[in-house]
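Question:
Write out your own:
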Amino acid sequence: MKAVRFDEYGTVDVLKVVDVPTPAPGPGQVLVQVKAAGINPGEAKIRAGLLAARWPATFPSGQGSDLAGVVTQTGPGVTGFAAGDEVIGYTDNRASQAEYAVVEEQNLTAKPAGVPWEVAGALYVAGATAYAAVRAVALTEGDTVVVSGAAGGVGSIAVQLARRAGATVIGLASPANHEWLTGHGVIPVAYGDGAEGRIRQAAGKVDAFIDTFGEGYVRLALDLGVEPSRIDTIADFDAITEYGVKGDGNAAGASAANLAELAGLIAEGQLEVPVAATFPLSEVQDAYRRLATGHVRGKIVLTA
């Protein structure tokens, strides 16, 4: 089968698609023919070696967590899935960017018929992260929450989940994304110099802050008077230690049950996961180049 590999840390140029043996599922595992696999900024940072101290790579390394596809084989003890089932799931083994992936049974959920493959394959990392971040800041009816990177992969889901929790949501994003945010019930505010004043003008009091971007937004949240216990960052690990804010992200939201809940909302038309672009697996380098340009609304997905 074809699979993404890299043999050293570096730029997108170290990524290659190579032939490797198709894995066999062991006890409690399922072999999935991958139809779609989302890509994520964290993967680019791992590949570049920027997170080597926290999440080192073992070479040759595969890549990818998100996936959606069709079950082709089940290992001993698997009872919840059978060959032919359409599934959404994830792997913790950096292996989803491939034609086939072995997945733990408990990391899969059925794909609703109304969810397109590219959306299903993009859901896990961004969806679980957004789910955890919104839960971490404990939103209730009448709260006002600010989300940085509000039109990105995580932010675009977080703003919708925050609205569903009854909050007034202010989304920091480039002007090109303001119309999309407004259409989802979010108050758009341009990021950059003067953002604090624009937020105060839009909201008055801010109760919570979800930072999906890093680069000083935790400090901004504190300046806005938000309590550290109601600030969650998925991008500024130093701020978690320095200011005592929360750092709930993908790991805190990772479960098939959460994935099933999000997929159900998508199928019912209550949640949109924007897909900015799709690329075939063979063009994985181009996919990550597109991601690196920034200002991507939603997700970029590799497809079979």
